[in-house]
UniProtKB/TrEMBL annotation:
This is N-acetyl-gamma-glutamyl-phosphate reductase. The active site is at C149. Catalyzes the NADPH-dependent reduction of N-acetyl-5-glutamyl phosphate to yield N-acetyl-L-glutamate 5-semialdehyde. It is found in: Cytoplasm.
């Protein structure tokens, strides 16, 4: 059976670990290169949970060595760092799935919310990694910009109703996420004493994922009112979304019809919860209408559908495999 050699650069973080866990058991991907910024360690030393499960050396990231070992590479790196690797890797003929924000937005919007972009050539060719919107484009992509976790949950919730939304009215997204979404680097917000038994908003109305939501929904940034909250959980995400709609329609039937071919979206008759999607690539969506107001609730695992399992789905499509090949789809908590 032919396999595709793949690599992970950025193996130290939470999303890197989730990628490794999926790739170790993937029937068509062979994990051939694992690296971080320091190297000189092994996988079991880096992630004790993989001890006696899978062992390999973790190398210091090197573009030439990666290119000689892989056909496709996942970049689980921070924004700005990722684009440094993308340009030479693409030039050497590799396919790349980038989990950072570096290729998700047009240059002007990206630079407004992040930093100057140093690889505008590849930016113009990147495919946004949301199969429900760009499945056909992903099949021929060389570079995929994996979506952010907040935009994934918000876009999938709102998208089916955009044609029924009252134009120029607010799209209100009230989202809650587990602490793992902030990564391993410690901050005042993620310090145990601050986050434990606590809940708070951060970057309300100006969070840099808001323009990503707006851009993919085809609306102005001022129409998206996005407020993220940090909750004392390790992982998981729920977005509560409010939009105004017109005309008479059955909102549940609209969801069912829109996602009837989607392998990783589940339309729910009861309000969604985080546990039911933990460890999976599912996005669960619930909708309720009252007069002209629509309430949409979507739940994902922020490390999986919001990052790592979504990245492997995109890689499957890029390599011509079935999109759910090797993707865990049974929640691991009761």
């Amino acid at each position: 059976m032919s396999v595709t050699k793949v690599g992970v650069i950025g193996a130290s973080g939470y999303t890197g670990l989730e990628l490794l866990k999926i790739l170790i058991n993937h029937p068509k991907f062979q994990l051939s290169y694992v690296a971080n910024s320091e190297g000189n360690t092994t996988l079991s030393q880096l992630h004790h949970s993989l001890n006696k499960v899978y062992e390999c050396d973790v190398l210091k990231a090197d573009i030439d060595e990666c290119a000689s070992s892989c056909e496709l590479v996942f970049l689980a790196l921070p924004h700005k760092t990722a684009m440094v690797y993308v340009k030479p890797l693409i030039s050497k003929g590799l396919k790349v799935v980038d989990l950072s924000a570096d290729y998700r937005l047009p240059q002007d919007i990206y630079e407004q919310f992040y930093c100057p972009h140093t690889d505008t050539e590849n930016l113009s060719h990147a495919v946004y990694g949301l199969p429900e919107l760009f499945r056909d484009e992903l099949r021929s992509a060389k570079l995929v910009a994996n979506p952010g976790c907040f935009p994934t949950s918000a876009i999938l919730g709102v998208l089916p109703f955009m044609s029924r939304r009252v134009k120029n009215t607010p799209i209100i997204v009230d989202a809650k996420t587990g602490v793992s979404g902030a990564g391993k680097k410690l901050s005042d917000n993620t310090h145990f004493v601050n986050v434990n038994d606590n809940l708070f908003a951060y970057n309300p109305l100006m969070h840099r994922h808001a323009p990503e939501i707006a851009q993919k929904l085809g609306v102005d940034f001022d129409e998206v009112h996005f407020v993220p909250h940090l909750v004392p959980l390790t992982r998981g995400m729920i977005s509560s979304i409010y939009i105004q709609v017109n005309s008479d329609f059955d909102a549940y039937e609209v969801l069912e019809e829109f996602y009837k071919e989607a392998k990783h979206v589940r339309v729910c008759k009861n309000p969604v919860d985080m546990k039911s999607v933990a460890g999976t690539n599912f996005c669960d969506i619930y909708v309720k209408r009252k007069s002209n107001m629509l309430f949409i609730s979507s739940a994902i695992d922020n490390l999986m559908r919001g990052a790592s399992s979504a990245a492997v789905v995109n890689a499957n499509l890029m390599m011509g495999f079935d999109e759910d090949l090797g993707i865990p789809n049974i929640a691991y908590v009761p």
